[in-house]
Structure prediction request, 287 residues.
Amino acid sequence: MRFSFTHLTLLAASVLTWTSASGRPSPSHELVRRELHLYEEGYINTRSYKHSNATVKLIGFKKIKISDADADEFEEGWHANFEELRQLERHFYDAASRELRIYFPVENALVEHGSSMIEANELGEFEMDWLDGDYAVVGRYQTDHVHGVDANIIKDGIIYLSERVLPHRRVGNVFVYDFGYKDVHDHDDHDHDHGMAKRCEKIECPSQGCVKNHGGVNCSKKFGISKGRCPMRKDVCMDFNGVAVNLPGVDCSRPTSKAKRILKFPGSDCDYAVGAGHCYNEVAAFH
Prediction:
C-alpha cells in the first residue's frame, strides 16, 4: 500500500511521542492522537497484500497498560531499545495514556456481509471493495492452531468474540480495530492492576490466554517461533525473550519488575505471534 507518508515522517512522529522520560510531563492526548494517526498510516504503508489497494483490508491492535508506578522505568528502557523496537514496525507507545500498542493484520476475520459471514485471508483482506454491513469483526474459524478461549463463544467450529468489535478508524479502504488489552503477566502474578483477569495456564483451567487458545502449548512451539535470544521455553505462555534482553542488567529470566516484563514483550516469540494476527481473540478486557 502506498500513502503520501514517508518513513522519515513516521520516525519523526515516533520520536516526538517517545521523548517522555523521568521528570518530564507526558504529551497531550491531542498530540499523541496526531502522531498515532501518522503511525497507523505508516504501518499500513509498509504492509504487503495479495489483492489490489482498492479492496477492503483490516488491521487491529492490542494494548498493554503501563501503570503510573512503572512508567518511568518502562520509558527509560523503551528509549534504550528505540532502534531495535522501531525495526519491528508494529509497536506504538502512547505516552499520554501510558499504553503500548501492538499492531497486526486481522487474520482470517469473520465479518458480516449481508445475511452471511465472509472470511478475510491471512493478511486481513477481502477480494471486494465494500462490505454490506457495519464492518464489525465477529470472530474467526477454529483451526489446528487457534482453538478459542473461555471468554469466546465457540459454536459449529466458529470462535465468536464475546463482543463484536467495530472499527474505530478508517484510513481509505483500511479499517482499524481495537481488540482490547493483552495480559503479559504470568498466572502466578498476583497483582491485579486495572481489574484484568489473571491467567491460569494449565490447559484444564479456565483461561483467557494463549496456551488455551493454541491447544495447550505456547506460541513458540505452536508456530515454530524462536528468535534465538534465549533458550526456548515451552512450559510458559510468555517467555520474555524480546529485544530488551540486551539491556544492561537484563537477562533471560522472568523479571521481577513489571516494567521490565513489559519491555521484554516486544520482539518475543509471543509478540511475533500477536503481530501475525494469531491471537486477537484472546482477551483480558475489552474497552
Summary: Residues 36 and 96 are 11 Å apart (CA to CA).
